[in-house]
Write a structure and sequence with these properties.
2 domains, 4 helices, alpha+beta, TolA/TonB C-terminal domain, seven-stranded mixed sheet, 36% strand
Length: 243
Amino acid sequence: MQRAFLLLCLATPLAIGQTQPNTKLPVVAHRRIPGTYCELAQAGTLQVNDSDVIVHVTESGENLYPSALSRSFGFLEYAPSDLSSDDLENALYAARDAGFQLQVGHAASIQVLPAMQPAKSMPDVACVDLKSARETLESQPVPEQIYNAASKDVTPPEKVSGTEPKYPEKARRRGIQGDVAVSFILKEDGTPSYIFVAESLDPDLDESAIEAVRGWRFKPAIREGHPAAAAIMVKVHFELYMR
């Protein structure tokens, strides 16, 4: 399968300020692998010009690591001295509209991956299957524009069907209960995609939560009268009296 080299390409006007044409800086692109506790980290270049923001990901310097992501689908790590204030503001808006974040790192982290430590809410797992990770990312692309469902100009989505998660017997016997935070992209047709655990409770309960969310259906978010892709996070609750 041919791999995609373009991580983020937004043909939307930049929000504020004027940029210098062809501003480039090295970044590390971190992308969460749906359905796993891992992320793909790749060296790349962020290019900001007067009409769009493009991230070009190179073939070198890529690997899988336990995830540092808990709230976003991916982030671009840059050295703090490499981006001017105007370019930073423009890049922040553009990345946010596509479900990504910009995060300050250290200059050395551009050369040595990864710079981020795993999120404390994630289990300590090994990530070894790079080929599978690439295939998963290619099969679940992030839409070019993802809107915040809480924005004033967006009608938030509404769940219309879906069953409660199954309570794994192993977790029940251990007396584990609480919430699993699940993040996903709700597509324009009301189906969840790019699903992953944002805050873990227990690996068995996490898996059950993902399976439940995968079967949920929604009225999609609406923006300017049309369905729009939206970034969603839900809490899937487990209590011991659940069947």
